[in-house]
Amino acid sequence: MKTPVCDFVREYASKNPVRLHMPGHKGEGDGADAFDITEIDGADTLFVNSGILGESQKNASALFGTAKTLYSAEGSSLAIRAMLWLVSAKAKRDGTCPLVLAGRNAHKVFTGTAALLGIDVKWIFPDGGGYLECPVTASKLGEELENCPKKPCAVYITSPDYLGNIADIEALSAVCGEYGVPLLVDNAHGAYLRFLKDDIHPITLGADMCCDSAHKTLPVLTGGAYLHISKTAEEFFAENAENAMSLFASTSPSYLILQSLDSVNPLLESGFSSLLEETVLRTGNLKKYLCSLGFELAGDEPIKVTVKPKSFGYTGCELSKIMQGNNIYPEFSDPDFLVMMFSTCTKQNDYDRVTDFFGTLQRKEKNTAQPPAIGKPAVFMNAHAAVTAPCEKVKIEKSVGRVLAQPGVSCPPAVPLVTCGEVVSEEAVRAFRYYGIEYVYVVK
Q1: What distance in Å separates the CA atoms of residue 235 and residue 96, rounded to the nearest whole number?
Q2: Does the pLDDT of residue 129 top 80, yes or no?
Q3: Residue 21 in 3-state DSSP?
Q4: CA nearest neighbour of 425 among 433, 411, 119, 161
Q5: Which conformational region is residue 83 in: left (phi greater than 0), alpha (psi within -120 to 50 degrees), or beta?
Q6: Are 440 and 424 in contact (CB under 8 A)?
Q7: What are the tens digits of pLDDT across the range 37-92?
Q8: Which domains does the chain have, with CATH numbers?
Q9: Could you tell me the sign of the dihedral formed by the alpha carbons of 57, 58, 59, 61, in that order?
Q10: Angle at the Cα of 53 from the Cα atoms of 10 and 197, rounded to 5 degrees
């Protein structure tokens, strides 16, 4: 498989050109500066492409089996915004007000975009568990769709979630098909799922659209992502996908990131699946070893390890600090979980160091503290009104009874405890405190 973007840039850089165009470093520097260009003649233009970028994206589309795959140099965040605009625009074209039925563990980009676009959201709340988890079965989704006040323009699911839980997308897709509602999946953590021995990528299993953060699990630079549109999805989505992406995207996408997306295509075409199979085996062996030590694990994602360290006497935050002291840096930690992400680029020596670390970790008395329940916050105003209203930053202790203006949560994990327009309760404040949130923005 060709790499048209990389080939063009290499050839351009090799000619030692006089660069009378952006960027200002003019190709000088010790790093990748020589390959960092802008939309000069021949380089094509992202989202209005007919040349090398268009060819590269067609290669990616063939690899993922989609009607259309578009590159994002701004992560899955851009693809999420585009998906929501597409279903919203389709609903308005059909003469209906956009409503999305969404799992409560949605990323804050979903929340903010829905608010700014004026999309109503009906949340699917989890039956117990923490704020990062929202298991949605086919039967539960059917009940939610049946009891929805009006037909939603989309169902939105996060899978895999941050803890590595994978939803039954095939079953959820079948339910959505019965109700004539498109299924959107935030698959930011699962780009590699397409290349497993058993392909469980959302598009393969029936999702209409999904986003993949290539940079999370593939050998791609940070910011590299995809918007995928299924061959069976409404034609409107594929026909308007470039417009949707360009509405929210920078007009100066990083050509380093675009080259990274282009260069991974030949690897995905041949060789990656066998590398991935080896990674799945190594990660599975690590999971078995941790269980033999007495650790409890969460999630079923094959190349992610989520430890529940309280079973060993530690909070996730405590364990993360100890690991970093040993020059091992996990992806995420909170009081209840510690997440480690592996990839085909993780060497056996890295697995050995992780194994040695946990094998010598002193076990302490089990920590039985449970995370506080958050409940279902009351809604005072719609999200659009809340995010555009005058607001102020207050300490969480002074936020009880106030209306949240903006989700006060960092990334990772970027899953709001309370969303825009909802009333902050005493329960919510306890949760804020538990997860280390000290200030929130509330409507004045």
Answers
A1: 18
A2: no
A3: coil
A4: 433
A5: alpha
A6: yes
A7: 999 999 999 999 889 999 999 999 999 999 999 999 999 999 999 999 999 999 99
A8: 4-269 (3.40.640.10), 272-360 (3.90.1150.150), 383-443 (3.90.105.10)
A9: positive
A10: 95
